[in-house]
C-alpha cells in the first residue's frame, strides 16, 4: 500500500526529471538534429566543439558574472527586509504583502513592465534627464553591460519578497531573549544583527545562496525580454541557457548534441557551485 501512494510522484519524477536528464547526456554524444533524421554516435566531438566555441565561453562568463553579482545581494537584502517587516508594528501586514507581490507575478509580465520603464523614452530615463543626472537617455536595452545589470536588478527586485518569507521563518526560531540580553549589555542594533541574527539564520542563508545561484545560472527570461531574442546586441549579453537555446533548438542549423553538451556543462557548473558552497558552509560551522 505505501508503494501505491508514492507511485504517482515517483512516476512523475522519472518521466519529467530523471529520463530527460539521462536522455540529454546520451544526446550530447550524438549528432541528433532538432528536426529529426538519422542519429549517429560521435563520441566527444560535441564537447570538443563546445569548448572551442568563443560564444560558449562568453555566455559562461555572463552567467558567472550574474551569479557573482546577484547571489551575495540576494543573501543579504531579503534578510534586512525580513528583519524590518518582522517588527510588530501597526499595518506591517500591508508592507509584507507589498514586498511579496512581485514574487507571485509572471516574470514575462514583470519583464515587459521593466522594458517600458527602461526604454529610451521610459520613466527611468525621463526622470534621470529631468534631474540632470544624465545628459541623454541611457541605453538600458541596447548596451551589453546595461542589459545584464538591468536584468540583475530585475531578478533582485522579483526575488526579494520570496526570500524575505524564507528568512522570516528562520527569524521566528531565533530566541528573542538573546537580543534582550545583548541589548541589556549595551549591544547596538548592528552588533546584535551581526552576532545574533546572522548566526541564527546561517542555515537559511546557505539555502538562499544555493537557490539564488541555481536561479542565476538558469536565468533566461529577463535577458530575453530586455535584450531581445538574440540576447543583446550581437548576443553579447546572452547567458548559458541562451546559448543552449540558440545552438540546440535552431530548426535549420541547430544541433541537439551540441545543445545537450552545453546543458551537461551547465549542470556540472551548477553542481560544482553547490558542492563548493556546501564545503564552505561546513568549514564556517566548524570554526
Description:
- With 287 residues, the chain is mostly helical.
- It is built from 13 helices and no strands.
- The protein has helices at residues 2-27, 45-51, 54-85, 92-104, 107-118, 123-130, 144-171, 176-184, 189-200, 202-217, 221-227, 240-248, 256-286.
- The longest helix is centred in the first third of the chain and has 32 residues, at 54-85.
- The radius of gyration is 23 Å and the shape is globular.
- The mean pLDDT is 88.
Features:
287 residues, mainly alpha
Uncertain residue ranges:
none
Radius of gyration: 23 Å
| Count of separate DSSP helical elements | 13
Order of helices and strands: HHHHHHHHHHHHH
The count of DSSP E runs of length 2 or more, i.e. the number of strands, is: 0
Short description:
73% of the residues lie in helices and 0% in strands.
Amino acid at each position: 500500500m505505501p508503494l501505491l501512494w508514492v507511485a504517482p510522484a515517483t512516476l512523475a519524477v522519472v518521466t519529467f526529471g530523471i529520463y530527460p536528464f539521462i536522455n540529454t547526456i546520451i544526446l550530447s554524444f550524438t549528432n541528433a538534429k532538432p528536426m529529426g533524421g538519422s542519429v549517429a554516435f560521435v563520441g566527444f566531438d560535441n564537447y570538443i566543439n563546445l569548448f572551442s566555441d568563443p560564444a560558449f565561453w562568453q555566455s559562461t562568463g555572463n552567467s558567472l558574472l550574474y551569479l557573482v553579482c546577484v547571489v551575495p545581494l540576494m543573501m543579504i537584502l531579503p534578510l534586512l527586509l525580513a528583519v524590518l517587516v518582522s517588527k510588530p508594528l501597526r499595518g506591517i501586514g500591508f508592507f509584507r504583502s507589498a514586498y511579496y507581490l512581485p514574487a507571485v507575478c509572471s516574470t514575462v509580465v514583470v519583464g515587459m513592465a521593466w522594458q517600458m520603464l527602461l526604454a529610451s523614452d521610459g520613466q527611468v530615463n525621463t526622470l534621470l534627464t529631468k534631474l540632470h543626472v544624465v545628459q541623454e537617455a541611457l541605453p538600458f536595452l541596447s548596451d551589453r553591460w546595461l542589459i545584464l545589470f538591468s536584468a540583475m536588478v530585475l531578478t533582485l527586485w522579483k526575488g526579494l519578497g520570496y526570500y524575505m518569507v524564507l528568512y522570516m521563518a528562520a527569524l521566528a526560531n531565533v530566541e528573542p531573549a538573546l537580543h534582550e540580553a545583548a541589548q541589556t549589555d549595551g549591544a547596538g542594533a548592528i552588533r546584535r544583527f551581526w552576532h545574533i541574527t546572522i548566526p541564527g539564520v546561517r542555515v537559511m542563508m546557505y539555502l538562499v545562496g544555493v537557490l539564488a545561484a541555481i536561479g542565476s545560472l538558469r536565468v533566461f527570461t529577463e535577458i530575453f525580454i530586455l535584450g531581445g531574442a538574440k540576447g543583446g546586441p550581437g548576443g553579447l549579453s546572452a547567458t548559458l541557457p541562451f546559448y543552449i537555446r540558440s545552438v540546440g533548438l535552431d530548426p535549420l542549423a541547430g544541433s541537439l548534441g551540441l545543445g545537450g553538451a552545453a546543458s551537461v556543462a551547465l549542470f556540472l557548473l551548477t553542481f560544482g557551485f553547490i558542492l563548493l558552497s556546501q564545503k564552505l558552509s561546513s568549514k564556517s560551522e566548524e570554526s
